[in-house]
Design brief:
The chain has helices spanning 4-7, 10-14, 28-41, 53-59, 80-93, 104-109, 112-127, 144-156, 175-184, 200-208, 219-231, and strands at residues 17-21, 45-48, 66-71, 97-101, 132-136, 161-163, 190-193, 213-216. The chain is of the alpha/beta class and 253 residues long. The chain has a single domain, classed as Aldolase class I (TIM Barrel), CATH 3.20.20. Strands 1-2-3-4-5-6-7-8 form an 8-stranded parallel barrel, surrounded by 7 helices. Helix 5 (80-93) packs parallel to helix 7.
Length: 253
């Protein structure tokens, strides 16, 4: 029987990865190196800080790697007008994927209408430019009920993905949360795991349960290991040991 790993191609895995370049201490050479790595491994996108969008756009010109950036990052508490302005500027500068942080406090407070309308305002701007919107719930601060409600609001607002985490909260993606999120939205909505996917086995595990994107910094190590495993010869079944030769009865030594 063919395993999940056997059914995956390199492209299947690489195009599920958003290479993350969001650490505040990254200098300009680090951003350039990260974009070149993303192009070399042909991942889905880079996710860069807003200040780096134009640089990433130029570095990735001619590649199939999309430029993504963050909106309302990392706390999600910016006003709707601010998130919309950030989105317009990012799109103008070359971003084609927006990872927007939900208004966490509004969701926890039960202000669902405000949360949905804010997401929808960003979605309207992005979709007018054929760009994707991924909405970050920041699950570390939410109950399961709030996670489910957040997922439903993301889908109702017309966004393209629901995402676990920013990477700047106490915890990130867990298998339990990802299963919950996958059940809480229709197949029209992607699920992105972020913060904690650092090995190929972890990446394969979340893909197998229906995650469609993964934010990662260990991109090269995971994809190098994937290629190495694919290139390795299949393990041969062990042959049963030959029975020992029976002594020849009556033979003199």
């Amino acid at each position: 029987m063919t395993s999940f790993f056997d059914r995956l191609s390199y492209t299947d895995v690489a195009k599920a990865i958003d290479h993350s370049l969001l650490k505040p201490q990254l200098d300009d050479p680090s951003i350039e190196a990260g974009c070149k790595l993303a192009a070399r491994y042909d991942v889905a996108s880079v996710c860069v800080r807003p200040r780096d969008v134009e640089r990433a756009r130029d570095l990735l010109s001619g590649s199939s790697v999309a430029v993504g950036t963050v909106i309302g990052f990392p706390h999600g508490s910016s006003r709707t007008e601010t998130k919309v302005f950030e989105s317009r500027l990012a799109l103008h500068n070359g971003a084609r994927e927006l990872d927007m942080v939900i208004d966490i406090g509004a969701l926890i407070s039960g202000n669902d209408r405000y949360v949905q309308e804010q997401i929808a305002a960003v979605v309207e701007v992005a979709h007018a430019e054929s760009a994707l919107v991924k909405v970050i719930l920041e699950n570390a601060y939410l109950t399961d009920e709030q996670k489910v409600r957040g997922c439903q609001l993301v889908e109702a607002a017309g966004a393209d993905f629901v995402k676990t985490s920013t990477g700047f909260a106490p915890t990130g993606a867990t298998i339990e949360d990802l299963r919950l999120m996958r059940r809480s939205v229709s197949s029209k909505i992607g699920v992105k795991a972020a913060h904690g996917i650092r090995t190929l086995d972890a990446l394969l595990e979340v893909l197998e349960i229906g995650v469609t994107r993964v934010g990662a910094t260990a991109t090269a190590a995971m994809l190098d290991e994937f290629k190495a495993r694919k290139a390795a010869p299949p393990a041969q079944p062990l042959r049963p040991a030959s029975p020992a030769t029976s002594p020849q009865v009556g033979r003199s030594e």
